[in-house]
Amino acid sequence: MNNAKLAAKLNPLHQSLVQISDNVTFGSEEIIIIGGPCAVESYEQMEIVAEKLHSSPVKALRGGVYKPRTSPYAFQGMGEAGLKVLAAVRDKYNLPVVTEVMAISQIEVILASADMLQVGSRNMQNFDLLKELGGINKPILLKRGLAATIEEFVMAAEYILSHGNSNVVLCERGIRSFDNYTRNVLDLGAVAALKQITHLPVIVDPSHAAGRRELIAPLSKAAVACGADGLIIECHPVPEKSVSDAQQALSLEEMIDLVHTLEPVAAAVGRKISTNTKGVDRKSTPLHLAIA
Ligand code: PEP
Ligand code: MN
Which CATH superfamily is domain 18-290 in? Predict the structure, then answer.
């Protein structure tokens, strides 16, 4: 990894912390769990998700409003109306939110509603987007490309870092292979390698890796055991009704159960799953104003 200048780990203790809100920081002893649906579908949906998860160890919400869909005829996301939903639940439940940015033109409006901007797999080497994200002062969640090598992944992070944004979290989300039983192959070897090569926090997305809800729990445990700094997991109030990625969505109850089963695994590798939850901040904007 000769070309990585800014992402390279300089000594075994070199570890960056990436803070997305007052009490959510990636890269510390604490394993950060992000939960939520594939796509924001309505205020009511996100309200149920946040209401259930805010008192659990899930520390941040996910939900796509600009969706990179294989088919142009599939639901493309709620767009700006979805951002208003995210901002409203964030304020009401004091949970930071992560959402995907697909284009430079979306950055400004997303910055107003999200605490972390996700670069999806399909955009990992969209170098103009990466350069632009290097110029903002919000953390970036960079997902590994569908068929990107570890070196290409690190160099994509290097684009953001070298343009001035040092708050980058890497996300392994599975890579393409020959088997189609799982959606992708979760490359935990890459997680171990990235933790050795770079000082950036590394999290795992078992949902897009497996594509099957029954595999999410064991893969999450394996990810924590091999040194991941966090997880991003899809869950939905009525999983089979998800407008996208229904087969991989957990119910909210399954999500909470899963997080608790990770506690002994985290403890075994000297980490912990957060249990502290800040009180709900009910300075909420009335719904009709929030999504107007
Ligand atoms: C997502 O997290 O919603 C997503 C589309 O993931 P990926 O870019 O990893 O496919
Ligand atoms: Mn999805």
Answer: Aldolase class I (3.20.20.70)
